[in-house]
Amino acid sequence: MRSAIEPGTKIADFVSFLDRIDECNRWEPAGFRPFIVAGHWVGMVGAGFAEILSRYADTFCVESDRVTLDDGLVDFEQRSRAVAEALRDIAEDGEIKGWRGELYPVASGFTEPPLMAMERAAIPRFGIRAYGIHMNGFIGEGEDIEMWIGRRAGDKQTFPGKFDNMVAGGQPIGIGLMENLIKECAEEASIPPELAGRARPVGAVSYCAHSEEGLKPDTQFCYDLRLPPDFVPENADGEIASFELWPIQKIMDSVAETQDFKFNCNLVIIDFLVRHGFIAPDHRDFLEIVESLHQSHSIFEGIQL
Description:
The chain is an alpha+beta fold. It is built from eight helices and 13 strands.
C-alpha cells in the first residue's frame, strides 16, 4: 500500500480503515449465554466462565441458556457485595487477571440506574457494557494538523507498548464524564483543569470485541482538544512511557496499515478523520466506515431469552 500523498491526491483517498474496525467486532454469539440481573439482560457470559460461576450457587444460577444473578439479592448493596465475594475468590484462582480495585456500574443502559457495581477486571468476563473517555489532543488546521500520540508503558496490565490516544480512561461508577476526562488529563498528560475543560464532546464509538479477557461490548465517548502549539504533555501516573507529535498523514498510515495502536484507539482516530474531512464522503468506504463505528448497541439483538 502507498504511504505518501502524491500531488493532486486527496488525503485518505487510497487507504482503507475497515480492517481496524473489523478487528474490534469479532465474536460469535453461539459461544455465550445472557447474563441477567434483576430481570435485566446486562451481559454475555462465555461457556467456560459460566462453568466457573456454577460453583457459586448462592450467587449465580447457571443454566444451559443463561446465567442469572440470584433473585434473593434484592438491592444494589446486596448484589455488589455478593458478587465481589465470589469474584475475589475466582481471582485468587487466576481466572480473573489484572485486578484494578476500580468499580464499574452494571446497568441495562448508560443512563439507567446501576443494578450493582463490579470490579473492572471482571467486566469483560461477564460481557457487560463498559464505557470510557478518549481524547484527541491536536494542533494546527486542515492537512497541517498534528496529533499527540502516547505510547503505553511496557508494564501496563493491558496492551503494553501500544500507541494510544493522548488521553483515555475507563468510566468508573460515581463520576461524571467531564469530571473523569479532567482527572485523566491531569494523570496521563499533565493537562491543567482549565485547559482540559475546553475539550469538546464530539460523539462516541462503539464495538464488540472478543478477547482472552472475555467480551467487550464497549462505548467510548470521544473528545477533541485543540492545544496551544507550545504545550508538551508529560505523564504523571506512569501509564504512558512517552508522547510524540505526529502529522496527520503518519497517523493515517499507521492506523490503516498496522496494528501498532491499542485496538479501540483506532476507532477514535478514524472517527476524528471522518469529522475533520480526511475521510470524505467520496471515499470508497465512507458509508461503511461511518456505519461500522457504532456496533455494540446491537449485540443483544436476535437472541431469544
